[in-house]
Structures are given as structure tokens and as C-alpha cells.
Amino acid sequence: MPVSPNTRSSAHWSGWVARICLGCILSVVGLFVFEFGCYVPAGKAFKDTAGIAGGKRWEVWFRKNKDSGEPFTARLFIERTPEQWYHYQLDFEALRSPSYRIQAQGDHFVVLEGSSPLATLDEALGHFHRIGRDEPEAADVTFGPPPGRGGW
Fold first, then answer.
1. Which of 37, 64, 69, 151 has the fewest beta carbons under 10 Å from its own?
2. Tell me: the pLDDT tens digits for 42-60?
3. Looking at the structure, do residues 97 and 134 belong to the same domain, yes or no?
4. What is d(CA 100, CA 105) in angstroms, rounded to the nearest whole number?
5. 54 and 126: one domain?
């Protein structure tokens, strides 16, 4: 029995729709796995970004939280001396996508999350002041280099 052209066309398009839906589902699952770092062992730390601002070296590190369904803790490290680094918690539920960076502005620094200001940092006083909060946060001190080389 011959198949009508309309039936072939309908079957052809339904196959493409199924492929597109499957591709969308796999893309969402892949993005979730990447952003939440489900493949990263708990406690593993890695350097995300680094640079120099105002003559000071800085590095942003991510550490995988204990639960595999939780994202990362992000910390900013600023070098005081080669053996002393100040560090500040940027986020305890950070995803991989926001890129952090530092800009020197006069006698202080501005911490940017993507292109949005997140905080100001008075490095001389060691105060990290989040935008929208009243009280500054004091620095934690690491003796020795940042994580991945013996710290945090």
C-alpha cells in the first residue's frame, strides 16, 4: 500500500521535533552539571581568574561545597606579601558563570561580578564592603600562597 506524501512529511517533521526537544533537554542538563560542578569532588579548589590591580596581585578561587548538588564557594585573595594573603568570601553559593575581577580606583579597589560592582575593598584597612550592606567585613589571613599551592 503506497504511503501518501502527507504522511511521509508528517513523520519527517515529528522526527525533527523530537531531535530538537532532546537537544534542548541535554543542553539544560549539561548547563546544570557545568554550573553546579556536579563532576567536581567536594572540597576541590581551583583558580578561576587572576590579575594585578594597583600593584597588588589578586586571585579568585572556587571551592566545591560538600554536597554535590550545591555550587561553589568563591573567595578573593589579595597578596599582602609573598607569604601573606588576605582573602574575602565573595559568595558561598557561586555558580561558575559570573566572572570576578578587580579594578583599582584611587586608594581602594572595586570588586566586579561580571560588569556589576559587588563590593569595595579598602586594602590598607583590610575592609571588604559589599554594596547594599552597612557593615564592612574583615579579611581572613592566609599565611602562604592561595589554594592549589598550599592554602585555604
1. 69
2. 788 888 889 998 888 899 8
3. yes
4. 16
5. yes
What are the tens digits of pLDDT across the range 118-137? 899 887 777 888 888 888 88
Q: Is the pLDDT of residue 85 over 80?
A: yes
Q: And the C-alpha cell for 116?
A: 556589576
For residue 22, give its domain range.
1-36
Residues 6+ apart with CB under 8 A from 80: 86
Residue 21 CA to residue 88 CA, distance in Å, equals 42
Task: Tell me the CA end-to-end span of the chain in Å, nearest whole number.
Answer: 73
Report strand pairing: 137-138 vs 127-130: antiparallel
How far out from the chain centre does Cα 112 lie? 12
